[in-house]
Amino acid sequence: MSTFADSSALVKIYADEPGHEDVRELPALVVSQLARVEVPAALWRKYRLRELTPRQVSVLVAEFEADFYGTLDEPGRFAVIPISDLVLETASRLTRVHGLRGYDATQLACAMLAVSADRDCRTFAATDKSLRAAAVGEGFTVVP
Questions:
Q1: What is the number of other CB atoms lying within 10 angstroms of the CB of residue 13?
Q2: Residue 87 DSSP SS3
């Protein structure tokens, strides 16, 4: 069974935040292509808040990129849903239906597209309350 993880959940794989244990235990993860920008941005924000050193952030971003793209020796850890016209059209509708911000709606739209490819991908990992509520409204079980 796979779980769709938005960027707020993915950051917990790399940074010790409340609830990180739950996210790190999730087996197969599906992510939006948006994570490629959002996760490094969140990690660099931790540097600006003086929670991490530049060296620590560089290491964590490199680990994330290896998980996202894979390496010469290992495939990527995540199944990545690309941003497409269908994703954007669905996200636009979700902003109206659930009052979501643009990127949150795009994350949820990617999760919905993932379900069309894998009906067992009905779990959604996120920390934002409005995104979690919208995911439940679209038939997902939310974690943590």
A1: 20
A2: helix
